[in-house]
Amino acid sequence: MFEERRRALVEKLVREGYARSEHVINALLRVPRELFVPEELVELAYEDTPLPIGFGQTISAPHMVALMTELAELKPGHKVLEIGAGSGYHAAVMAEVVAPSSAPREEWGHVYTVERIKGLVELARRNLRRAGYADRVTVVEGDGTLGYSEAAPFDRIIVTASAPHLPPPLAEQLKPRGRIIIPIGDKYLQHLYLIVKSEEGKLKYSKITPCLFVPLIGRYGWRE
Ligand code: SAM
Fold first, then answer.
1. Of 7, 24, 98, 210, which one's alpha carbon is 20 to 30 angstroms from that of 108?
2. Does 60 qualify as catalytic in the annotation?
3. What are phi and psi of 18, to 5 degrees?
4. Whole-model pTM above 0.90?
5. pLDDT, averaged in runs of 10, over the chain (224 residues)
6. CB 84 within 8 Å of CB 161
Protein backbone atom coordinates (compact mmCIF):
# COMPACT_ATOMS: atom_id res chain seq x y z
CA MET A 1 0.00 0.00 0.00
CA PHE A 2 2.75 2.50 0.97
CA GLU A 3 4.80 1.47 -2.06
CA GLU A 4 1.97 2.39 -4.41
CA ARG A 5 1.49 5.74 -2.68
CA ARG A 6 5.25 6.38 -2.78
CA ARG A 7 5.33 5.68 -6.51
CA ALA A 8 2.35 8.00 -7.13
CA LEU A 9 4.01 10.80 -5.14
CA VAL A 10 7.32 10.42 -7.00
CA GLU A 11 5.46 10.46 -10.35
CA LYS A 12 3.81 13.73 -9.27
CA LEU A 13 7.19 15.23 -8.27
CA VAL A 14 8.58 14.25 -11.69
CA ARG A 15 5.56 15.77 -13.50
CA GLU A 16 5.97 18.99 -11.49
CA GLY A 17 9.71 19.16 -12.29
CA TYR A 18 11.04 18.78 -8.73
CA ALA A 19 12.61 15.34 -9.31
CA ARG A 20 14.52 15.04 -12.58
CA SER A 21 17.62 12.86 -12.37
CA GLU A 22 17.55 9.10 -12.29
CA HIS A 23 19.47 8.86 -9.01
CA VAL A 24 17.19 11.27 -7.12
CA ILE A 25 14.08 9.56 -8.50
CA ASN A 26 15.44 6.14 -7.47
CA ALA A 27 16.33 7.41 -3.99
CA LEU A 28 12.82 8.84 -3.47
CA LEU A 29 11.34 5.54 -4.64
CA ARG A 30 13.50 3.56 -2.27
CA VAL A 31 13.34 5.45 1.05
CA PRO A 32 10.18 4.57 3.07
CA ARG A 33 8.93 8.00 4.27
CA GLU A 34 6.29 6.20 6.35
CA LEU A 35 9.10 5.16 8.74
CA PHE A 36 10.11 8.81 9.30
CA VAL A 37 6.74 10.37 10.21
CA PRO A 38 4.98 10.03 13.60
CA GLU A 39 2.84 6.89 13.81
CA GLU A 40 -0.38 8.86 14.17
CA LEU A 41 0.33 10.71 10.89
CA VAL A 42 1.40 7.71 8.85
CA GLU A 43 -1.65 8.03 6.57
CA LEU A 44 -0.22 11.40 5.46
CA ALA A 45 3.29 10.08 4.74
CA TYR A 46 2.84 10.42 0.98
CA GLU A 47 1.07 13.77 0.90
CA ASP A 48 3.38 16.48 -0.45
CA THR A 49 3.39 18.45 2.77
CA PRO A 50 5.64 19.09 5.78
CA LEU A 51 4.49 17.24 8.93
CA PRO A 52 5.17 17.88 12.63
CA ILE A 53 7.78 15.57 14.22
CA GLY A 54 7.66 16.96 17.77
CA PHE A 55 9.73 19.64 19.56
CA GLY A 56 8.06 22.27 17.33
CA GLN A 57 9.94 20.95 14.27
CA THR A 58 8.91 19.42 10.94
CA ILE A 59 9.89 16.86 8.34
CA SER A 60 10.18 18.91 5.11
CA ALA A 61 7.70 18.47 2.25
CA PRO A 62 8.81 15.87 -0.32
CA HIS A 63 8.99 18.45 -3.17
CA MET A 64 11.48 20.49 -1.10
CA VAL A 65 13.59 17.38 -0.39
CA ALA A 66 13.56 16.56 -4.12
CA LEU A 67 14.41 20.13 -5.18
CA MET A 68 17.27 20.54 -2.68
CA THR A 69 18.72 17.13 -3.51
CA GLU A 70 18.63 17.87 -7.26
CA LEU A 71 20.29 21.28 -6.73
CA ALA A 72 23.06 19.62 -4.72
CA GLU A 73 24.06 17.45 -7.73
CA LEU A 74 25.13 14.64 -5.42
CA LYS A 75 27.27 11.85 -6.80
CA PRO A 76 28.00 8.36 -5.49
CA GLY A 77 31.01 8.55 -3.16
CA HIS A 78 30.33 12.13 -2.00
CA LYS A 79 30.78 13.20 1.61
CA VAL A 80 27.75 15.29 2.58
CA LEU A 81 26.98 17.47 5.59
CA GLU A 82 23.36 18.16 6.48
CA ILE A 83 22.42 20.73 9.12
CA GLY A 84 19.08 19.83 10.74
CA ALA A 85 18.59 16.04 10.91
CA GLY A 86 14.98 16.31 12.11
CA SER A 87 13.37 12.94 11.32
CA GLY A 88 16.41 11.70 9.34
CA TYR A 89 14.39 11.37 6.10
CA HIS A 90 16.31 13.86 3.93
CA ALA A 91 19.59 12.36 5.13
CA ALA A 92 18.36 8.89 4.08
CA VAL A 93 17.39 10.18 0.61
CA MET A 94 20.85 11.74 0.18
CA ALA A 95 22.52 8.58 1.50
CA GLU A 96 20.64 6.58 -1.12
CA VAL A 97 22.31 8.78 -3.79
CA VAL A 98 25.87 8.96 -2.41
CA ALA A 99 25.85 5.38 -1.08
CA PRO A 100 23.27 3.52 -3.18
CA SER A 101 21.95 0.24 -1.79
CA SER A 102 22.86 -1.30 -5.18
CA ALA A 103 26.58 -0.24 -5.07
CA PRO A 104 29.41 -2.09 -3.31
CA ARG A 105 30.17 -0.69 0.16
CA GLU A 106 33.75 0.27 -0.84
CA GLU A 107 32.24 2.85 -3.19
CA TRP A 108 29.87 4.36 -0.64
CA GLY A 109 30.06 8.01 0.34
CA HIS A 110 28.64 9.18 3.67
CA VAL A 111 26.14 11.65 5.10
CA TYR A 112 26.85 13.47 8.38
CA THR A 113 23.78 15.20 9.79
CA VAL A 114 23.89 17.59 12.74
CA GLU A 115 20.87 18.21 14.99
CA ARG A 116 20.66 20.55 18.01
CA ILE A 117 17.65 18.95 19.76
CA LYS A 118 18.58 15.82 21.70
CA GLY A 119 15.12 14.21 21.32
CA LEU A 120 15.39 14.58 17.54
CA VAL A 121 18.95 13.20 17.48
CA GLU A 122 17.49 10.07 19.10
CA LEU A 123 14.47 10.05 16.75
CA ALA A 124 16.64 10.43 13.62
CA ARG A 125 18.99 7.64 14.78
CA ARG A 126 16.05 5.33 15.49
CA ASN A 127 14.34 6.06 12.16
CA LEU A 128 17.56 5.64 10.17
CA ARG A 129 18.31 2.34 11.90
CA ARG A 130 14.80 0.99 11.20
CA ALA A 131 15.01 2.05 7.54
CA GLY A 132 18.48 0.51 7.04
CA TYR A 133 20.64 3.67 6.76
CA ALA A 134 22.54 3.56 10.05
CA ASP A 135 25.86 2.67 8.38
CA ARG A 136 25.57 5.39 5.70
CA VAL A 137 24.41 8.28 7.90
CA THR A 138 26.01 9.57 11.11
CA VAL A 139 23.77 11.71 13.32
CA VAL A 140 25.74 14.22 15.38
CA GLU A 141 24.32 16.23 18.28
CA GLY A 142 25.37 19.88 18.25
CA ASP A 143 25.14 23.34 16.75
CA GLY A 144 25.31 22.85 12.99
CA THR A 145 26.11 26.53 12.35
CA LEU A 146 29.65 25.50 13.43
CA GLY A 147 29.67 22.77 10.77
CA TYR A 148 31.32 19.49 11.68
CA SER A 149 35.08 19.99 11.52
CA GLU A 150 35.79 16.36 12.56
CA ALA A 151 34.73 15.11 9.12
CA ALA A 152 35.45 18.21 6.96
CA PRO A 153 35.94 19.07 4.14
CA PHE A 154 32.63 18.17 2.48
CA ASP A 155 31.63 17.83 -1.18
CA ARG A 156 28.15 19.17 -0.43
CA ILE A 157 26.40 20.95 2.47
CA ILE A 158 22.61 21.06 2.82
CA VAL A 159 20.97 23.28 5.44
CA THR A 160 17.34 22.42 6.26
CA ALA A 161 16.56 25.37 8.57
CA SER A 162 16.53 29.04 7.62
CA ALA A 163 19.56 31.21 8.35
CA PRO A 164 20.05 34.98 8.57
CA HIS A 165 23.19 34.51 6.39
CA LEU A 166 25.60 31.74 5.42
CA PRO A 167 27.41 30.58 8.60
CA PRO A 168 31.16 31.17 7.91
CA PRO A 169 32.24 27.70 9.17
CA LEU A 170 30.12 26.08 6.45
CA ALA A 171 31.93 28.04 3.72
CA GLU A 172 35.28 27.04 5.27
CA GLN A 173 34.36 23.35 5.50
CA LEU A 174 33.26 23.10 1.83
CA LYS A 175 35.67 21.71 -0.78
CA PRO A 176 36.56 23.77 -3.88
CA ARG A 177 33.83 23.15 -6.53
CA GLY A 178 31.50 22.19 -3.67
CA ARG A 179 27.88 23.27 -3.36
CA ILE A 180 25.79 24.55 -0.45
CA ILE A 181 21.99 24.58 -0.52
CA ILE A 182 20.59 26.89 2.16
CA PRO A 183 17.42 28.89 2.91
CA ILE A 184 18.35 32.48 3.84
CA GLY A 185 16.02 35.24 4.99
CA ASP A 186 14.00 36.40 7.96
CA LYS A 187 11.15 34.72 9.82
CA TYR A 188 8.55 35.56 7.17
CA LEU A 189 10.39 35.65 3.85
CA GLN A 190 13.19 33.34 2.86
CA HIS A 191 14.78 32.25 -0.39
CA LEU A 192 16.51 29.02 -1.17
CA TYR A 193 20.08 29.67 -2.36
CA LEU A 194 22.54 27.55 -4.27
CA ILE A 195 26.09 28.62 -3.35
CA VAL A 196 28.96 27.27 -5.44
CA LYS A 197 32.61 27.52 -4.36
CA SER A 198 35.13 28.08 -7.17
CA GLU A 199 38.50 26.35 -7.41
CA GLU A 200 40.01 29.57 -5.90
CA GLY A 201 37.53 29.56 -3.01
CA LYS A 202 35.20 32.31 -4.26
CA LEU A 203 31.49 31.87 -3.46
CA LYS A 204 28.80 32.47 -6.09
CA TYR A 205 25.22 32.85 -4.82
CA SER A 206 22.16 31.97 -6.97
CA LYS A 207 18.66 32.70 -5.66
CA ILE A 208 16.42 29.76 -6.51
CA THR A 209 12.91 30.12 -5.06
CA PRO A 210 10.95 31.54 -2.10
CA CYS A 211 10.50 29.03 0.74
CA LEU A 212 9.52 28.69 4.39
CA PHE A 213 11.64 26.77 6.91
CA VAL A 214 11.91 26.62 10.70
CA PRO A 215 14.75 28.84 12.01
CA LEU A 216 18.40 27.80 12.19
CA ILE A 217 19.25 28.48 15.83
CA GLY A 218 22.86 28.72 16.92
CA ARG A 219 26.08 30.69 17.14
CA TYR A 220 25.96 31.81 13.46
CA GLY A 221 22.16 31.51 13.15
CA TRP A 222 19.24 33.02 15.04
CA ARG A 223 19.13 33.41 18.81
CA GLU A 224 16.92 30.96 20.72
N1 SAM B 1 15.92 17.41 7.35
C2 SAM B 1 14.85 17.12 8.26
C3 SAM B 1 14.06 15.90 7.90
O4 SAM B 1 14.35 15.26 6.86
O5 SAM B 1 13.18 15.53 8.68
C6 SAM B 1 13.93 18.29 8.45
C7 SAM B 1 14.58 19.35 9.22
S8 SAM B 1 13.59 20.53 10.07
C9 SAM B 1 12.81 21.41 8.76
C10 SAM B 1 14.92 21.60 10.64
C11 SAM B 1 15.76 21.01 11.74
O12 SAM B 1 16.87 21.86 11.97
C13 SAM B 1 15.04 20.87 13.08
O14 SAM B 1 15.08 19.55 13.49
C15 SAM B 1 15.84 21.79 13.99
O16 SAM B 1 15.91 21.35 15.33
C17 SAM B 1 17.19 21.78 13.33
N18 SAM B 1 18.10 22.89 13.66
C19 SAM B 1 17.83 24.19 13.82
N20 SAM B 1 18.96 24.88 14.12
C21 SAM B 1 19.97 23.97 14.14
C22 SAM B 1 21.38 24.04 14.39
N23 SAM B 1 22.02 25.19 14.66
N24 SAM B 1 22.10 22.91 14.33
C25 SAM B 1 21.51 21.73 14.06
N26 SAM B 1 20.18 21.59 13.83
C27 SAM B 1 19.43 22.70 13.85
1. 7
2. yes
3. -75, -40
4. yes
5. 96 98 97 98 98 97 98 98 98 97 94 98 98 97 98 98 98 98 92 98 98 96 93
6. yes
How crowded is the C-beta side of 102, counted as CA atoms within 13 Å?
Answer: 6
**CA distance between the termini of the chain:** 41
223 within domain boundaries: no
Q: Evaluate: CB of 169 within 6 angstroms of ligand 1.
A: no
β-strand 51-54 against 57-59: which pairing, if any? antiparallel
Q: Is the CB of 58 under 6 A from ligand 1?
A: yes
Domain CATH number, residue 46: 3.40.50.150
Helices (H), the chain: 2-15, 22-30, 62-72, 89-98, 118-131, 168-172
When divided into structural domains, the chain yields a total of 1
Q: How far does the centroid of ligand 1 lie from the alpha carbon of residue 160, in Å? A: 6
